[in-house]
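During the reporting period the student researcher (J.K.) took over the structure-prediction task from the postdoctoral fellow and processed the backlog of single-chain submissions. One of the processed entries is reproduced below for the supervisory committee.
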Amino acid sequence: MHMTYCRSLAPRLCLISMSILKKILIALLVLFVLLGAAIWWVTRGSPAELSVEAVAGTDPTLEEPNVESVPTVQIAKPVGWEDGDAPNAAEGLAVGRFAEGLDHPRVLQALPNGDVLVTLTRSPKSEEDGGITAWIADWLMTRAGATGDSANEIVLLRDDDGDGVAETRLTIANESNGLDSPSGIGWHDGKLYVANHNALLAYDYELGADSVSGEPTKLMDLAPGGGHWMRNLEVHPEGNRIYVAVGSVSNIGEQGMEIEEGRAMIWEYNLETNRQRQFAGGLRNPNGLAFSPWSGELWTTVNERDMLGGDLVPDYLTNVPIGAQYGWPWVYWRTNIDQRVKAPRPAYLAEYARKPEYALGPHVAALGLVFTQEGHMMGDNFASGAFIARHGSWNRKPPSGYDLVYVAFDELGNPQGLPVPVIDGFLNEDGTTKGRPTWVEWAGDGSLLMTDDTAGIIWRVHAPDAEAGSGIERLSSEPLRPRRELTGDASAAFSEDDYAREVPSQ
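J.K. obtained the following structure tokens:
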């Protein structure tokens, strides 16, 4: 081809043409090398220096922040489970498939009659062009198996013969019933409560029915989609209030705090008065919600901020008193100021920001949460604490999470020790993953169910040889007698039987 081209030109012109072509090719080669080097530099990230365990527990190690202009990226691409394969279970436990072939199952809700509901859902479609940042985020989430069209279904699963496998599968609600990226679900007294990404809904639903009945009632609007889109809920044990967790749009408010209105908080909706109020704030991305069996207090799992390095900031498990403020985006772990935040820091944070109770490790993406309950079939080693699904990191080297862990609690309802693996083995040696733990719920037979969203499986965990365990005894105490003056040791005002959360020595 080149000879033919050169014969059509004067020899001198031919030499010039070839010289230019050679220079162009060299320039392109250099450009590709530089581009490759740039991509390598951007994606190499900053490997963590501490173990996940060092950044977990009641007293985690908090290193100095390593501010990243571009996040460290290590995507564990989902490859699925082979037939008959299963996660590794802790000693004394067995794990099997309760249901499979589901389209991105997320949140579970067990019903009093033994049926189990699960939401099949993904993030809502965005109508806005978010530019290069949004494109990169979408690419990353695609590799992590988190993108695609949302099925927008609530599916009923029923174990008809008690063998630990759901034989019956029914769709009881879908888009035609108003579902739009549904997450949290709860049932009480003939009502099924569902948190879409943009609204809290109530449906009439009788136990055992094949579908919801009638049109839903909208109880309250929620800040829609964007960023952290899941909207999880928990019905109060008394059945008169609902708590809804709403995550932030952004990492640290970098898009302005106006867009964060109504987000990064837990809402309370009163079913008797139809009034709503902010229950707690400063929670970047709250997820699992559960009431402590010791105190009756609301607890939650929270996903903390990114781009401060592989060792910061730990996701956490904490109690949520009414009016609690956990400091996002300005501070983390109560006293640590995030210097990257541009929005003016409210003065009240210096005094009112709370310290989380328990660190779950950096970037583990803590989601589903349940406490030990009466009738559990998990054995003595898992008889007094909380079970938490750690969905797994996309921005830490080495990866963190990708497991179901147990956090032991003491007799006063305080978390202690380090997270203990219940089931793991999701990560492969080649950096891929078989699945991603998502949500947890107690089945009627005392086993523990956990969704694996990217694999489309609900796993069932139990101790085959265990007897049904007892529940946690609710703590109670008489009010302290008033004292007109305190002299000597202030602790003398309290007896051994008085309930109080432990305060670490200064």
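The committee noted the following: The mean pLDDT is 90.
J.K. will present the remaining backlog at the next meeting.
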